[in-house]
Amino acid sequence: MSKPKITIVGSINMDLITVTDQVAAAGETVSGTHFETLFGGKGANQAIAASRLGADVSMISKVGDDAFGAEMIKNFEDNGVVTDGIAVEEKTPSGIANIIVSDKDNRIIIIAGANGQVDKAHVDNYTSVIKNSDMVLLQFEIPMNTIRHTLDICRKEEIPVIINPAPVTELEREYFEAATYITPNEHERAQLFKMREDGLPEYYEKLITTQGAQGASYFNDGREILIPPKNVDVVDTTGAGDTFNAAFAVAIAEGRTVEEAIYFANDAAGLAVRKLGAQSGMPMREEM
């Protein structure tokens, strides 16, 4: 079987991770236990995870003209991701995420940097890459006009597309309708999608809802089915959702059913949370 071709249009960040037993309140200073600089960004995470899981992956994005940018491009190359679609934005810093990890959970502050310069013109330079994709993956850490434009291209070319609506940002109904699948977590789903008169959420037939330690759900014949994950020892949940999205995309592109794809994605996300950092624990295909 040939490798599925997956294109990610999204963000690239350097994650600045602080681990602490106690999260500081306003005006308070506490001691942390560990600091590390690791590769991240929702788009980048999904690209790395999909590549490790056996897909041919292309990344469309931008980094800054700084040391972080050069390191992040090399990281993609080391992980087999095609970097032709990554531009270096002059006089602009790379995106960063300030991540506080405490009690096996995380709090994240994002500075967009070059991610904020991923515009429609840049995407247009790689329309041929999108046209040749088996699946396109989108998140909401780049400008929403660019998200809309990419969805317009996918709709015109009839390319399957997954919208991972994180962080929560409003998007017009017509664009959610253009998605093949929509993958919010339970909080994002509640914020973005109203309940219909029949008691089902909007676009329920497209929704794949990640629910943390409970697993993930989908709808079948109007009934929500929850697929639990395997029990794992959790070190850091950063990147678990991105691993899930990438694995789900790979499995669907390979021709698996939605249920099979969720089982595969749950397993991949479970493996990913065993190490600190978004990309550190993302599994290789042979680990699955």
Automatic annotation (TrEMBL):
EC numbers: 2.7.1.15
Cellular localization per UniProt: Cytoplasm
Gene3D superfamilies membership: 3.40.1190.20
Top-level class of the enzyme under EC nomenclature: transferase
Domain of life per record: Bacteria
Notes on how activity is controlled: Activated by a monovalent cation that binds near, but not in, the active site. The most likely occupant of the site in vivo is potassium. Ion binding induces a conformational change that may alter substrate affinity.
Required co-factors: Mg(2+)
Cofactor comment text: Requires a divalent cation, most likely magnesium in vivo, as an electrophilic catalyst to aid phosphoryl group transfer. It is the chelate of the metal and the nucleotide that is the actual substrate.
Pathways per UniProt: Carbohydrate metabolism; D-ribose degradation; D-ribose 5-phosphate from beta-D-ribopyranose: step 2/2
InterPro entries, per the entry: Carboh/pur_kinase_PfkB_CS, PfkB_dom, Ribo/fructo_kinase, Ribokinase, Ribokinase-like
Residue numbers annotated as active site: 242
GO molecular function: ATP binding; metal ion binding; ribokinase activity
Binding of substrate, residues: 13-15, 41-45, 141, 242
Domain Carbohydrate kinase PfkB stretches: 4-283
Residue ranges crossing the lipid bilayer per the database entry: none
Pfam families: PfkB
Gene Ontology annotations of biological process type: D-ribose catabolic process
Binding-site list for ATP: 185, 210-215, 241-242, 266
Residues that coordinate or bind K(+): 236, 238, 272, 275, 277
Catalytic activity as recorded in UniProt: D-ribose + ATP = D-ribose 5-phosphate + ADP + H(+)
UniProt keyword annotations, A-Z: ATP-binding, Carbohydrate metabolism, Cytoplasm, Kinase, Magnesium, Metal-binding, Nucleotide-binding, Potassium, Transferase
Family indicated by similarity: Belongs to the carbohydrate kinase pfkB family. Belongs to the carbohydrate kinase PfkB family. Ribokinase subfamily.
Subunit structure as annotated in this protein's UniProt entry: Homodimer.
Name of the protein this chain belongs to: Ribokinase
Organism for this UniProt entry: Lacicoccus qingdaonensis
Name of the gene encoding the protein in the UniProt record: rbsK
